[in-house]
Design goal:
74% helix, globular
Length: 298
């Protein structure tokens, strides 16, 4: 479990910057352009990794239909929802709503993918979500005090993530982590480009302007390329539910980045929420000592 926890924390640190980069890019670019740029730069860095390692990616007998559905539900669609939602609500609110992803992953797996869940998993999810509430210092009614459309779009993104995680675990487990990561980003690049050309073709060239290079490297190369290697490793070696737990820790890493880079204050509620969140992650991911393989989520 040590490698899984290390990958989980590393992924949360990378994704903790994603909401910041998206907010910066939204100043000049439409949401569809950000989805395309994020997918393209993520695909590009993974292609470089493959070429550097001199590995061959399978081209024949690939489940292209299932890869397309995972690319749509786990990449293109939620990214479009998230970037659009950030034009309506704050980045911090978006990251907090994003933390409901494990709940949707559990529910979707239970209802549609025949996942058998232990009581400790449900309990751990509840603990982690309580930690998010403490962390954000939300008051009753705060969640919908902003733009309702932004909240609904962000919720749609979390549901889409839950579907994508379950589908990748069930249908793509025979592929390597690199293959899943590269091909889903390749397909989401095509989806993003088609969407961009339909909604705002004039901004297609703008994506490659030098002023957007660094944010796209952070959001695409790291937030999608390297991050998806970690994410699909968590899905394959752990479970879809375990991988989705990263969204609980992302607000924590966002606070850390804010304190380090933007000198934002750290409050007691943040530290308390952090401890509760880690307790929830540990509770939901711990396996029984006896018959642990049978009790793992498929």
């Amino acid at each position: 479990m040590g490698k899984l926890y290390s990958a989980l924390i590393a992924l949360s640190l990378i994704w903790g910057t994603s909401f910041l980069f998206m907010k910066l890019l939204l100043v000049e670019l439409p949401p569809a352009a950000i989805v395309f740029g994020r997918s393209f730069f993520g695909m590009l860095i993974l292609l470089a990794v493959v070429l550097f390692q001199k590995k061959r990616l399978a081209l024949k007998k690939l489940p292209w239909g299932k890869l397309f559905l995972v690319a749509l539900t786990n990449n293109a669609l939620p990214w479009l929802f998230i970037t659009t939602s950030e034009t309506k609500i704050s980045s911090s609110m978006a990251s907090i709503i994003n933390a409901t992803t494990p709940v949707w992953t559990l529910v979707i797996g239970f209802l549609f993918f025949a996942s058998h869940l232990r009581k400790t998993q449900w309990f751990g999810i509840v603990i982690g979500f309580a930690g998010i509430i403490v962390l954000s210092d939300l008051k009753p009614g705060d969640l919908f005090s902003g733009n309702t459309l932004g909240v609904l779009l962000m919720t749609g993104a979390t549901i889409s993530y839950g579907i994508g995680a379950q589908m990748s675990k069930k249908y793509l487990s025979n592929l390597s982590v690199q293959e899943i990561s590269f091909y889903t980003l390749f397909l989401s690049t095509i989806i993003g480009l088609v969407t961009l050309m339909f909604f705002d073709p004039s901004s297609a060239k703008t994506v490659f302007h030098l002023e957007f290079l660094l944010p796209f490297i952070g959001l695409g190369a790291f937030g999608s390329g390297f991050a998806y290697l970690l994410y699909y490793f968590l899905v394959k070696e752990g479970s879809a539910e375990f991988a989705s737990l990263v969204t609980y820790i992302v607000p924590v890493s966002a606070i850390i980045w804010g304190a380090v880079l933007l000198k934002e204050p750290v409050h007691i509620s943040m530290l308390l929420g952090l401890m509760i969140i880690f307790a929830g992650v540990y509770t939901s991911s711990r396996k029984p000592k006896v018959c642990s393989e049978k009790s793992a989520v498929a």
